[in-house]
Specification:
Helix content: 55-70%
Strand order of the largest sheet: 3-1-2-4
Order of helices and strands: EEHEEHHHHHHHH
Length: 261
């Protein structure tokens, strides 16, 4: 018996990690599948001194629940990747070879970007690459967790089930995202309307009142003076303000996409 360290996903989408004892890697994958876990990483490690397998997995620090968000700019939507996973699982479950399954899905795909990606994967598989390696060539569509789970499914001989589970995880994540968007839509509308109102007051209304209040500047309270000065600055240098805000947004989006972000 050997010990294996693993990271896996539960049916709920939570990420867990731990160790398990098994005869070999394939046996470890089968045991994890029996517990309802979908391993994304597994490797041999030194066995525990007491010889007792670690049955209760603990959430791995820094791991995200479910597949990471797909990056923008690929022309492929998440729902299309989910549908591809579901259809690919059905074709593989019907014992259709991977290249033929990819060719069939690629020819029927309406999204040109995804169509080209699927056909390129089919060509790579025909040349001898594994499905996970072919997907790894398109990291903006199939992220590392997705590719890792496909690789584990290939090694365990359970690729149709893994692809079905991936589709279910993506659908579950989409449902949660939809609920969150529906919940925050109204507060965001109110916030946006409030910001728009404040901008109109600072750039249109207050500058007209500023001339009337010139004689009263010495007796106005400090908060009122700050507001008037801010309004005057925005009214005079609004192009510079827009440039700074735009640059801040672009820099923030760039930082979020870095490993540190």
């Amino acid at each position: 018996m050997g010990a294996f360290r693993y990271q896996a996903l539960e049916a709920s989408g939570d990420s867990v990690s731990g160790t398990i004892e098994a005869e070999d890697r394939r046996d470890a994958l089968s045991l994890l599948a029996g517990r309802g876990l979908f391993p994304s990483f597994i490797e041999p490690c030194a066995p525990k001194l007491n010889g007792a397998p670690k049955s209760n997995a603990v959430a791995a620090p820094g791991q995200t629940a479910g597949p990471q968000r797909f990056q923008l700019g690929t022309g492929v939507r998440r729902k299309e990747v989910t549908a591809f996973s579901r259809e690919m699982a059905a074709l593989l479950g019907a014992s259709i070879p991977i290249p033929q399954a990819l060719d069939g899905l690629g020819e029927e795909e309406e999204n040109l970007a995804l169509k080209m990606i699927v056909l390129r994967m089919a060509e790579s598989v025909r040349k001898g690459s594994s499905l996970s390696a072919a997907m790894d060539e398109h990291p903006k569509v199939f992220n590392k967790l997705y590719v890792s789970m496909i690789r584990v499914g290939e090694e365990a001989g359970a690729l149709p089930k893994v692809m079905n589970d991936l589709a279910a995880l993506l659908e579950h994540e989409d449902e949660i995202r939809g609920e969150v968007v529906a919940a925050v839509s109204y507060p965001l509308f109110v916030l946006g309307f409030g910001i728009f109102t404040v901008i109109i007051l600072l750039t249109v209304v207050l500058p007209k009142l500023f001339a009337m209040l010139q004689e009263m500047l010495k007796v106005l309270p400090l908060p009122t003076l700050i507001l008037l000065r801010t309004s005057g600055f925005i009214h005079r240098f609004w192009p510079l303000v827009l440039i700074v805000l735009g640059g801040t947004v672009i820099a923030g989006r760039w930082y979020i996409r870095t490993p540190g972000g």
